[in-house]
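Narrative of accomplishments. A recurring question from our advisory board has been how the design workflow behaves on a single, concrete structure rather than in aggregate. To address it, we present the structure tokens for one chain from the evaluation set, followed by the sequence designed for it. No filtering or post-editing was applied between the two.
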């Protein structure tokens, strides 16, 4: 039995992955943005070990959620599912002066990766929209650019793959992979999304716990349990390291050395 922590799991793909893992006999700890959503999550999946709370748009909450999670000891796997979508109509600034979209989608996974007890496996949720992500990392927090929600989202999903691959390179003792769940009909994806919802959550659960040799790999990008090509920029160590340097500078938290 594995112990798995899933961020952003009060509904949608995160909750579905949690339910799948519970049904398979694993211990699952979920996460919700606030206590009201946490209570709904407990009702939806009472078999979960716990539901941690914290709005991962702020650095203080990122640290707090990491502390809560570490109170459960070391996880066998962490699924970084938390995320905002591509429909954000404007740049919303967090209490830390950051783009909310970038803070939640990129900085939160980075901070949690750096602060949690190192798990055996890491899974980062990405998107097919990585193909349009800006590899320059110029103004990645949208401080100067005119806001474009779709482009900002694409950028963050490329950043998530960069993070997954950089961690795979720096931590050879951890299996770190990225997943495109497909454009599925969740609250984020919208009711008209054409992809298979049932397939949308299975890959992250499989990567988190499966002993299938196909799942015991690292530094790969998956769609529906198959490895897929990804934006070539994601495999560039220089770009990976530049993103990590920005995340470290903004958060004041360094990624620990690999083991």
């Amino acid at each position: 039995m594995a112990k798995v922590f899933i961020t952003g799991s009060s509904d949608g793909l995160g909750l579905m992955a949690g339910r799948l893992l519970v049904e398979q006999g694993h211990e699952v700890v979920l996460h919700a943005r606030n206590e009201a959503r946490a209570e709904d999550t407990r009702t939806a999946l009472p078999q979960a070990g716990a539901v941690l709370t914290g709005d991962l748009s702020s650095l203080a909450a990122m640290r707090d959620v990491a502390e809560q999670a570490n109170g459960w000891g070391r996880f066998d796997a962490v699924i970084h599912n938390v995320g905002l979508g591509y429909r954000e109509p404007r740049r919303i600034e967090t209490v830390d002066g950051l783009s909310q979209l970038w803070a939640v989608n990129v900085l939160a996974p980075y901070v949690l990766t750096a602060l949690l007890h190192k798990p055996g496996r890491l899974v980062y949720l990405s998107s097919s929209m990585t193909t349009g992500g800006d590899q320059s990392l110029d103004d990645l927090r949208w401080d100067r650019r005119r806001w474009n929600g779709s482009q900002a989202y694409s950028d963050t999903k490329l950043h998530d793959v960069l993070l997954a691959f950089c961690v795979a390179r720096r931590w050879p003792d951890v299996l770190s992979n990225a997943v495109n769940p497909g454009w599925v009909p969740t609250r984020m994806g919208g009711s008209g999304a054409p992809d298979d919802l049932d397939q949308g959550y299975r890959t992250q659960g499989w990567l988190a716990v499966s002993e299938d040799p196909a799942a015991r790999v690292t530094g790969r990008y998956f769609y529906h349990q198959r490895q897929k090509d990804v934006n070539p920029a994601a495999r560039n160590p220089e770009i990976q390291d530049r993103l990590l340097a920005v995340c470290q500078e903004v958060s004041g938290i360094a990624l620990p050395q690999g083991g």
